[in-house]
Amino acid sequence: MTKDKFFTPEEKIQITDLYKQLYTVSKDVLLPNDDQKVRFYIREAIEKGLLQRDSFNLNPIINDCETALIVAEEIGMNRPSILGIMLSGVVLSGAASVGEIKSDFGEDVANILHGMLRIRDLYTKSATVESENFRSLLVTFAEDLRVILIMIANRVLIMRKIKDTPYVEAQRKVSMEAAYLYAPLAHKLGLYKLKSELEDLSLKYLEHDAYYHIKEKLNETKRSRDAYIANFIGPIEEKLKAAGLKFHMKGRTKSIHSIWQKMKKQQVDIDGVYDLFAIRIILDSKPEKEKQDCWQVFSIITDMYQSNPKRMRDWLSVPKSNGYESLHITVLGPEQKWVEVQIRTERMDDIAEHGLAAHWRYKGIKSGQSGIEEWLANVRGALETNDDMQLMDQFRMDLIEDEVFVFTPKGDLFKLPAGATVLDFAYTIHTKVGNSCVGARIGNKNVTIRQKLQSGDQVEILTNVNQTPKQDWLNIVQTSKARNKIRQSLKEMESKQALMAKEELERKLKNRKLEYNEPTLMHTITRLGYRIVTEFYAALASGTITMDQVLEEYAAQLRHAKGEEERTVPTTSAQEFVMQETDTRKLAGGDDVIVIDQELKGLDFQMARCCQPVYGDDVFGFVTSGGGIKIHREDCPNAPQLRARFGYRIVKARWAGKRGSQYPITLRIVGNDDLGIVNNITSIISKEERILLRSISIDSHDGLFSGTLTVMLDDTSRLQQLLKKIKTVKGVKNVTRS
């Protein structure tokens, strides 16, 4: 294809004029022969037939020239950006490689084109652009902030040129991208003028009737609005001049898009939107007097008109994150109408209108900002010095340093924290996918579940029906969502395994012709050292205890229970209960006494749960209605009632000369909710010989914590030593035995 066929007669005239304008604007920043080399690359691309018109049938070379003009004139960017735009069509079409461009124009230009290629690849993944995730990922993929600025400028150009296009569907698509993607990015970068233009044009194409309804209403009220503004600012001008301030004022009608948003939010017609316009007072102040002058104007206006404190916005003391500085107040003007007044200096107004382009024009002025001014200075320095290391600017790093963005094979986009793994992503998609995940495929390469994800990865999760969650998965995942789902799945698996263990136990009992007796089984579980039934079955399922151990103990307890029944059947009441000689021993006084000995035969006795006696406690025995005996502490809370109502069932008891098994003791503890206090307590218990921590329950409230500890120990002397040591822990207020 020749150049003559690529351009229409009108376009030939237009491109000649555009080249002249662009050269005039950029001649001071271009190197010798830059212009000739760009023309050579473009001419070759045209002759090879690789350059194509876009979906609106617009000429790509003319589009690039006009975009370069916007970037140079309205944003203030220089050589790398201008050359990057002019060569973008050549590289994106494949007529030249990034390497060739780097060789002829330098690494800076090549970096911009590399960013454009990456963004094109991003679009091919068909992610939904109407999302914050896509916006963040776009910035991530661009790598160089200048690429984002170029894309914003290009979208402004396209939106200006598609007013009367017959390609309605394409018009709607780019308008939605302008509204949801490029306008917010322009806002973040402080390009308010371009942001407002993108918003208004997208509203014009997407909400045609609403746009023209507002526009017609504004035209109808323009004369009265202008008259009101003149009436409002007249007295203010006199006061400001009398104060010796240099300034100029202008009235500004809010953008159509802004008015439309207010109409929707307040659910009113345009007549119900009271602040359709704002008055802007722009001061000609010296750098060191900027804030002082702004606050002086504020004082003068609020003395003249009543202000609305709820509507005051002080971006003078604390500027916006994109560098915007201004003082906004809303006052009650003539005819009882609310009027917004914006107070700023020439410098602040320039920055508000032109965003980043204005920041490096005021390089020597310090506004008193900290972090915000710092990253803006980084951007400014990068664009001025062309330092490619600085091009990974703070704006991009702040946005993405804690996040990664990945795609599914279908193009759905997900945001995860930095460091997230394949397993995190699997659980983000669905719990079932996570539970059965065995790895993933990223870029045609198989990876493990531990693989950390990078922004832009397209991840296909690999699953296996036989896969189940593992305990060590909790060390692999980074997200709390995945961790909670793994814990939940492990708990469910444990419950299922415990149920299977229970069913197997019942089956084994039946096979051995042992009758199933619930009380006997509960006693067996207790004898095996388990107080909670689910813990017992979990231990049985995991192999901590064997089925044979359980069956042997159960058979022994069943025989014991049957023998106990035979002895106690003749006993009609506790009053007729007679101690057998093997059950008691004589004290010096001649009284019958139960001697508590683990090797004692022929007598069923148990420690009472209400007071949990241990070796060394003063105790007594209480004959139960079933014939067994419960051992209580003398100071048991239930002792007075038992003695008063059932004195005939009370028998004396004492411990044998040697210690028996360990006994459960519950301690109540109260203290300050200090960091690490619970760890300190449990550490003390773990270091004690022959003391085992069985359970702990702690609740904190209003800076205090309270709870219970259950420990296993064998006598009161060890208990007293433990109480003393716990009381020495810093923050513990009280610890008592239940």
How would you describe this structure to a colleague?
The protein has six domains: 204 residues, Orthogonal Bundle (Hypothetical protein af1432), CATH 1.10.3210.10; 150 residues, Beta Polymerase, domain 2, CATH 3.30.460.10; 69 residues, Beta-grasp domain (Ubiquitin-like (UB roll), Roll), CATH 3.10.20.30; 80 residues, no CATH class; 82 residues, no CATH class; 75 residues, 2-Layer Sandwich (Alpha-Beta Plaits), CATH 3.30.70.260. It has 738 residues and is an alpha+beta fold. The chain is built from 28 helices and 21 strands. Strands 1, 2, 3, 4, 5 and 6 form a six-stranded mixed β-sheet that branches. Strands 12-13-17-15-16-14 form a six-stranded mixed β-sheet. Strands 19-20-18-21 form a four-stranded antiparallel β-sheet, covered by helices on one side. It is elongated and about 120 Å long. The N and C termini lie far apart (96 Å). Helix content is 50%, strand content 16%. A hairpin with a 5-residue loop joins strand 15 and strand 16. Helix 10 packs antiparallel against helix 11 and helix 20 packs across helix 22.
